[in-house]
Amino acid sequence: MLRTLVSRGICTSASKYAASSAAGSTTYDMCILGGGIVGLGTARALKIAHPDMSIILLEKEKQLSTHQTGHNSGVIHMGIYYTPGSLKAKLCVDGAMRTYEYCDERLIPYKKCGKLIVATNDEESARLDILFEKGQQNKVPGLAMVDRKEILEIEPYCTGGVKAIHSPNTGIVDWRRVAISYGSDFEAAGGVIQLDSKVTRVKDVGSVLRVECGDKGRIEAKHVITCAGLQSDRLARRSGGDEFPKVVPFRGEYLELHPSKRHLVRGNIYPVPNPNFPFLGVHFTPRMDGAIWLGPNAVLAGSREGYSWTDVRPRDLVEMATFSGLWKLALPNIKYGIGEAARSLAWPLQLRELQRFIPTLGLGDIVRSNIAGVRAQAISPSGALVDDFQFDETCPGMLHVRNAPSPAATSSLAIADHIVDRATNVFKL
What we know:
Elements: H1 2-8, E1 20-22, E2 25-33, H2 37-49, E3 55-58, E4 75-76, H3 87-106, E5 110-111, E6 115-119, H4 122-137, E7 144-147, H5 148-154, E8 163-167, E9 171-173, H6 175-188, E10 192-194, E11 201-204, E12 209-212, E13 218-226, H7 232-238, E14 246-253, E15 255-257, E16 268-271, E17 283-286, E18 292-295, E19 299-300, H8 314-321, H9 324-330, H10 334-345, H11 350-355, E20 366-367, E21 372-379, E22 390-392, E23 398-403, H12 412-426
Parallel strand pairs: 2-3, 2-13, 3-10, 6-16, 13-23
Antiparallel strand pairs: 1-2, 4-9, 5-9, 6-8, 7-8, 11-12, 12-13, 14-19, 14-21, 15-18, 15-20, 17-18, 22-23
Helix pairs in contact: 2-6, 2-12, 3-12
């Protein structure tokens, strides 16, 4: 039923429950914490499913979607990489198709520029076959295995490839623009968005949950859903939840292709994932403005919102240094980590990786940039990366989104419906 309503657009009936006021606070039926694409999508979906519910969304920054959503690479993923049967696989394939529908309805521009996942040797070719099987099990539309000749028809300058998976429906979009549109839908339906409201504590005070926002006062709500991204574990702890999995910030930095060389790349060119390494590796990503991003690398950030080497917070460093799960992840991957740090500090070292796909690429074809994003990577105490989307319903009256990494933006409409279904069941809405 919810998906049918989404396809028809946001419901605009007025709420029959006006938010009630108490001494020093306002009470709502639902409070959502986090103004990224998952939080805004959830707020929108809740208003569709429960149009009479009074809902407020709190965001700690002065603008919406300034962190993971605002620093997103912009790719509309199709669900090729993810374990069949996982939430990522199910929600990404559904979410991608619905993203295109939503953008068409809202006149948000996008480009279906496609993607090649390129093998450059026999070892990668064998892994590519396994990846192709995953994509087929996930029912990714239009997927095809192509040979060297077909690679060159799609990407004429990608002469390093011997075999590739072609995903013609992979696209690009400005995800922050999509997220802001979700917020506009939510507000048009009577929802409330309050910016510059950093949550310091969530406390159960009986019939309601009290959300403390420092000098912004407090909000009271019958139920709370947290979609806090880089701060998700901290908000869970502040409301009595488990401290694990813990978020560890990894910064991904991008170079750019020189404007005169943008003709070298038509669509997304990705490497075959190496199971021995925790992250994907550098790739070529077209942008809506015509730019071509090269990257990202993956280096440990000095703070939860550390977009450069100089963004350091001692509290965050101490928290990471004392987390045994990070050490268990880092020590077996120390060589990989040193290599990533070296390529970050001496960016020309990235060239060799890029030349695996486009051998004619030269150092003068690459431009250093200050483009970077920070990934909220959830890690378990055992040192394992939490791969799938994860939710926590252990706190009474609360639902926490504990892990929503890529492809969360692509999956946002589907994730939102999933959260609403869980909330409706758990909270008996």
